[in-house]
Amino acid sequence: MAAATTKLLLSDLASTVKSVPSNYIRPISDRPNLTEVQISDGSIPLVDLQVLNGPSRLDIIKQIGQACQHDGFFQDYMHEWPSNPPSFRYNYVRGLVLRLPEAISESKHGQHMALNYCPPCPQPDLTYGLPGHTDPNLITVLLQDDVPGLQVLRNGKWLPVSPIPNTFIVNIGDQMQVLSNDLYKSVLHRALVNCDKERISIPRFYCPSPDAVIAPAKDLIDERHLAFYKNFTYAEYYQKFWNRGLAAEGCLDLFEVSTA
Ligand code: OGA
Ligand code: NI
Hints:
By secondary structure, the chain is an alpha+beta fold. The protein is built from six helices and 13 strands. The chain has helices at residues 10-14, 57-70, 85-99, 102-105, 174-179, 234-244, and strands at 46-47, 73-77, 109-113, 116-118, 130-133, 139-144, 150-154, 157-160, 167-172, 189-191, 199-208, 213-214, 232-233. Strands 1, 2, 3, 4, 6, 9 and 11 form a seven-stranded mixed β-sheet that branches. The protein has a four-stranded antiparallel β-sheet with strand order 5-10-7-8, with no helix packed on it. The protein has a two-stranded antiparallel sheet with strand order 12-13. The longest helix has 15 residues, at 85-99. It is globular. The protein starts with 9 loop residues before the first helix and ends in a 16-residue tail after the last helix. Nickel (II) ion binds at residues 133, 135, 189.
């Protein structure tokens, strides 16, 4: 056993510390401000994608459109729960995303997955699991466990998204906001830490291929509806996003058509 080289995992640290390690403490101006969080103003919409191809298709499409415009987020309830969850989830999520906008099913696309782990934290008001950001990709499908933490900005206030068992969260990313010329919103969201429990969430990010040219959809643009964004490739966007660093909330503004 090479004890000297053994590194503490974050989860080991979590069981012993009584206060947040100083490198995790956020400056006062950039803390979760938990008293400002909305206690109740409804929740993000629950949409039943299972019946998308049934007789209520038009109604479901309308619900999706409204959710994408107003919240940038919605939840989808999984009806069946499989004997083989990982592959089922993979296929389910893949199928779900391909059924969503035609823009995705018709384009080459990429995807990557993350696993976010936040240990219990004695002082959740001093730090974040993930600070406020928008997702740079096209669309994100998130599986969260039963520990609350995700919050979505609505009308200038943070709205907690309480976990509902067997439910996926779907949110619009920056590329979808561009394609829709700002009709659909890539909404700021963040994840808080919890003082009693660890929290795990698994986002799957669906992306255009790097060489895909992204621009507001032609059908949405005419003399009265000008494009708010320049054309760019996803590779250019992604590079700007990472160059800007994770401290920034997003980088859509760098691709706006200048009005000057
Ligand atoms: C993300 C994200 C939210 C969460 O990974 O981009 O927003 O609840 N995650 O972990
Ligand atoms: Ni995100």
